[in-house]
Predict the 3D structure of the following.
Amino acid sequence: PTTFEEGEISIKLFANGGFSELNPSKRASAELSADIFLESGIADLTRDKLSVLMYSSGTDFAIKVGTFSRSIEAFSAFDNIDVPLKLINLSFTKPNFKETACRTVIERIKQLIKNRTQDLEKTFELSYMAINTSSCAALRSLTLADLECFDCKVSEKFFEEAFSNPRDFTCVIVGDFAED
């Protein structure tokens, strides 16, 4: 039994291997690759068309590159299961990477970093992590200096390698399934 509403389904794919596997100078390129992928759109779906598709089908879709892992998550009504499955498939088979998406994501992250000092909770979190992880480079938040090393081509290459083979991923599907 799950706490899912009748007809809801959640799909999660996850694999080992995140941005910490790369040289620290390539960290920002790898860490931001999933954001750039989504900003670029998927296959023939622009970012706006992707948003409309997700909204109209009641689908949530996220792709992430973490410190030590990669993941794809989708949530939808069972009646619309074709939408998350299509998006997952296209993530592996037809990724887009646009230079304009790289610039958009970098500018958004720069603003977040600049505003970080005015967020007391974020400042506390960063201090807490630094103390408790001995300032481990892979576990700290991105800095403006990290962004100076960003390279869109490195980001694209990392994403294509990280999300090229679905066999690397473990897939978990959860929902309110009727037992037959």
